[in-house]
């Protein structure tokens, strides 16, 4: 498999797993967050996001770590394997909360050099913490539908960190 999409809810570990897949396989890893944000938390327009994702997915080999609905059709048209992180809400939200607080406290750059703040993490309508709750069920249903569809590209759902590690050890 040379074209892999790692999909899951916010905080499920998509970027970490996609990066590790790239390291183990030698496939180029592309951080979707870096393609969809400019410095200063300036969002990239949908049209430009589609162009950037199309350029990545035109390649013969890639690992990407997300799938936004506005351009998900692009990688799905070429993907050979979907790895879905179908973790329980408590686990993915706990990871997201720990990651967010860690990024704030350590001033860790994210999303193309941006920095999370207490304000945008906890008091903004666009907070990733809120987005997690708004999108969890939809993304979970989508992954499970892909796995159940025999005409869809191969989809592997991983439901625990132990399953992730076992699967990754065989890559």
Which short descriptors sum up this protein?
single chain, 171 residues, alpha/beta, Rossmann fold, five-stranded parallel β-sheet, two-stranded antiparallel ribbon
What is the straight-line distance between the termini? Answer: 10 Å
Extended strand count: 7
Task: Bin the helical content.
Answer: 40-55%
In CATH terms, the superfamily is P-loop containing nucleotide triphosphate hydrolases
Listing every helix as H and every strand as E from the N terminus to the C terminus, the arrangement reads EHEHEEHEHEHHHEH
Q: Radius of gyration over alpha carbons?
A: 16 Å
Q: What is the overall number of helices?
A: 8
How is the main sheet built? Answer: 5 strands, parallel
What CATH calls the topology is: Rossmann fold
Average residue-wise pLDDT: 95
Broad CATH class = Alpha Beta
Structural class: alpha/beta
Q: Give, in spatial order, the strands making up the sheet with the most strands.
A: 2-5-1-6-7
The percent range for strand residues is 5-15%
- The tally of structural domains comes to 1
C-alpha geometry: globular
Organism: Paractinoplanes toevensis
InterPro entries: Cytidylate_Kinase-2, P-loop_NTPase
Protein name: Adenylate kinase
Describe, in plain words, how this protein is organized in 3D:
There is one protein chain. The chain is α/β, with parallel strands linked by helices and 171 residues long. It has a single domain (3-169), classed as Rossmann fold (3-Layer(aba) Sandwich), CATH 3.40.50. The protein contains eight helices and seven strands, in the order βαβαββαβαβαααβα. The protein has helices at 14-25, 32-36, 46-57, 73-76, 89-106, 118-122, 128-148, 161-169, and strands at 3-8, 29-30, 37-38, 42-43, 62-64, 81-85, 154-158. The strands form two sheets. Strands 2-5-1-6-7 form a five-stranded parallel sheet, sandwiched between helices. A hairpin with a 3-residue loop joins β3 (37-38) and β4 (42-43). α5 packs across α7 (128-148). The chain starts with a strand and ends with a helix. It comes from Paractinoplanes toevensis.
């Amino acid at each position: 498999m040379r074209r892999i999409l790692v999909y899951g809810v916010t905080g499920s570990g998509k970027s970490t797993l996609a990066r590790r897949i790239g390291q183990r396989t030698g496939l180029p890893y592309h951080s979707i967050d870096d393609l969809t944000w400019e410095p200063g938390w300036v969002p990239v327009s949908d049209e430009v996001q589609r162009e950037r994702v199309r350029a990545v997915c035109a390649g013969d080999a890639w690992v990407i770590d997300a799938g936004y609905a506005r351009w998900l059709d692009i990688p799905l048209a070429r993907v050979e394997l979907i790895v879905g992180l179908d973790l329980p809400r408590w686990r993915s939200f706990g990871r997201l909360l720990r990651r967010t607080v860690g990024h704030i406290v350590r001033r860790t750059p994210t999303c193309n050099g941006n920095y999370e703040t207490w304000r945008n993490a906890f008091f903004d309508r666009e907070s990733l913490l809120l987005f997690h709750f708004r999108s969890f069920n939809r993304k979970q249903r989508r992954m499970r539908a892909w796995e159940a569809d025999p005409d869809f590209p191969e989809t592997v759902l991983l439901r625990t960190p132990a399953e992730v590690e076992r699967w990754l050890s065989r890559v």
